[in-house]
């Protein structure tokens, strides 16, 4: 069943008003008809099965019942990713959204080749947010992860908001360090907030890792192999998903 994410003010008294993008998709792309059913989700993560009333330029829906099944991770995992080259971050956002990421904090790391000024950052965030929305629709999420471009200092300051802060550190992998990540995974409980920090190509510098450790981050090796910048967040999320959703 097709899924759409809409602002809270589009849900009123048992009815839903589709936005322009969703209206075009329903009427012109999917060619849906009256009484066809879709799922509409609000910004709070509540999703409803809706029967459509389709007109060429406006689509409304009548709420039939609320979706009870939840596909969200029991822990909120935020991915802080040092800006990689090219469109690698787009791939990470798409796939990490499918794996259940709660939000994304792209930042310029010391070794980031890609640089963003304020104007470019706004356009990039708009595109990244659209990718997250499309991936949420495809993977039947109840929420769309939020993407916020942050400075290095903002990232350090935000660390206190999380239950666990994990730093994917390639030097730890080279040293065959395996216990730290496992220990964090075993401590996870539903409702925890996890910040997973991954570097760009070349990884985080020693100085960056030390700064993160000063705000209680745990440096971790993600297995014995050296992972690409776009692979490390997906490995981390998959391990968290297994531990919290499947291992019991």
UniProtKB/TrEMBL annotation:
It comes from the Bacteria. It is found in: Cytoplasm. GO terms for biological process: rRNA base methylation. Its EC number is 2.1.1.193. It holds the Pfam family PUA_4. InterPro entries: Alpha/beta_knot_MTases (IPR029028), PUA-like_sf (IPR015947), RsmE (IPR006700), RsmE_MTase_dom (IPR046886), RsmE_PUA-like (IPR046887), tRNA_m1G_MTases_N (IPR029026). It catalyses: uridine(1498) in 16S rRNA + S-adenosyl-L-methionine = N(3)-methyluridine(1498) in 16S rRNA + S-adenosyl-L-homocysteine + H(+). NCBIfam families: PRK11713.1-4, RsmE family RNA methyltransferase. Specifically methylates the N3 position of the uracil ring of uridine 1498 (m3U1498) in 16S rRNA. Acts on the fully assembled 30S ribosomal subunit. This is Ribosomal RNA small subunit methyltransferase E. The lineage of its organism: Bacteria, Bacillati, Bacillota, Bacilli, Bacillales.
């Amino acid at each position: 069943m097709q899924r759409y994410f809409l602002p809270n003010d589009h849900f009123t008294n048992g009815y839903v008003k589709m936005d322009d993008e969703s209206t075009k998709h329903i009427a012109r792309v999917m060619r849906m008809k009256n009484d066809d059913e879709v799922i509409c989700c609000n910004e709070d993560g509540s999703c409803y099965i809706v029967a459509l009333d389709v007109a060429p330029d406006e689509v409304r829906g009548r709420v039939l019942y609320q979706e009870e099944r939840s596909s969200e991770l029991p822990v909120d995992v935020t991915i802080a990713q040092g800006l990689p080259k090219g469109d690698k971050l787009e791939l990470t956002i798409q796939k990490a959204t499918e794996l259940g990421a709660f939000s994304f904090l792209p930042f310029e790391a010391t070794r980031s080749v890609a640089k963003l000024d304020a104007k470019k950052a706004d356009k990039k965030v708009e595109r990244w947010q659209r990718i997250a929305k499309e991936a949420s629709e495809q993977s039947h999420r109840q929420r769309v992860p939020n993407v916020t471009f942050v400075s290095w200092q903002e990232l350090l300051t935000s660390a206190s908001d999380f239950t666990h802060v994990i730093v994917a550190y390639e030097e730890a992998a080279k040293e065959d360090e395996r216990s730290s990540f496992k220990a964090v995974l075993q401590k996870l409980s539903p409702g925890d907030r996890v910040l997973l920090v991954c570097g760009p190509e070349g990884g985080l510098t020693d100085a960056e890792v030390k700064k993160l450790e000063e705000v209680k981050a745990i440096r971790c090796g993600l297995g014995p192999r050296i992972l690409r910048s776009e692979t490390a967040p997906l490995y981390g999320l998959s391990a968290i998903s297994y531990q919290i959703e499947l291992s019991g």
